[in-house]
Amino acid sequence: MRKIIIAGNWKMNKGLSDTREFVKELVDTISSLELKHTIPLIAPAYPFLQEALRESFGSAVQIAAQNVSLHSDGAFTGEVSATMLASLGLKYGIIGHSERRQYHEETDSDVLGKMHKLFEQKITPILCIGETLAQRDANQTAATILSQLKGCLHGVEMHSGNEIVIAYEPVWAIGTGRTATPEQAQEVHALIRKWLRDNYPSAVAENMAILYGGSVKPDNLKSLLACEDIDGGLIGGASLKVDDFVAMVKIANDSLA
Ligand code: PGA
After folding, report:
1. Is residue 169 flagged as an active site residue?
2. Which of these, 96, 86, 82, 1, lies nearest to 39 by C-alpha position?
3. What's the gap in Å between 174 CA and the centre of ligand 1?
4. What SS3 string covers 63-102?
5. Tens-level pLDDT at each residue, the chain (257 residues)
6. Does the CB atom of residue 244 touch ligand 1 within 6 A?
7. What is the 3-state secondary structure (H, E, C) of the chain?
8. Phi and psi dihedrals of 158, rounded to 5?
């Protein structure tokens, strides 16, 4: 059985005390749950990663960075390297989010470079891919997804399926309140899994967690998780309230029963 990841992408929200209080409450609440294959994960802003790691230490809650530098070290003002993230004890890093692609002009080859930096530090990349509304309307969804997979994973060897996590996030569904229907999401998730099956040993396609992202909330998570190839969510807005986040962790945990 594949793991289910409920990942909160906080983007540029929450300062030090909000981060501390949220993670503390999350850890306290989920300590009474018997989590089976569900992994709760939070991605706070860089300055508060250490606090989140400290508060979640020894619990089931995982912490991720929202980005990483393409460079190893040196004169790159404002950047944070994979080595620095690893020195905190971080285990996950989001790369290729559509907001990074859109506002910071990140390309698939940048994302591939970042992936290698994370691999070198034994940090699991959460690779985001997804089509824009214009691409969907032009019937370019499958072509876009396949081209992003090829570009971001070019030459990347995988054997177990635990090397990375993939997040399918249709850009038109992010922050818009317009979720892809479970059928629309499942269609793309099945395409991603088929591509993995065609390009990697079968364990990779079978074990890899493929998350859906784009206006996920407690109300729609259950129907998304009911789809065969959807193994969790990458959640922005609805991850900012601890009660909603806990509710989604519970929905995920119950979905395995
Ligand atoms: P959203 O964001 O849940 O607010 O749509 C998802 C994301 O950008 O990862």
Report:
1. yes
2. 1
3. 5
4. EEECCCCCCCCCCCCCCCCHHHHHHHCCCEEEECCHHHHH
5. 799 999 999 999 999 999 999 999 999 999 999 998 999 999 999 999 999 999 999 999 999 999 999 999 999 999 999 999 999 999 999 999 999 999 999 999 999 999 999 999 999 999 999 999 999 999 999 999 999 999 999 999 999 999 999 999 999 999 888 889 999 999 999 999 999 999 999 999 999 999 999 999 999 999 999 999 999 999 999 999 999 999 999 999 999 65
6. no
7. CCCEEEEEECCCCCCHHHHHHHHHHHHHHHCCCCCCCEEEEEECCHHHHHHHHHHHCCCCCEEEECCCCCCCCCCCCCCCCHHHHHHHCCCEEEECCHHHHHHCCCCHHHHHHHHHHHHHCCCEEEEEECCCHHHHHCCCHHHHHHHHHHHHCCCCCCCCCCCCEEEECCHHHCCCCCCCCHHHHHHHHHHHHHHHHHHCCHHHHHHCCEEEECCCCHHHHHHHHCCCCCCEEEECHHHCCHHHHHHHHHHHHHHCC
8. -140, 145
Query: To test the ligand 1 pocket, which listed residue (219, 234, 244) has its Cβ within 8 A of the most ligand atoms?
Result: 234
Domains of the chain (ranges; CATH) run 4-254 (3.20.20.70)
Closest among 203, 205, 254, 197 to 225, alpha carbons compared: 254
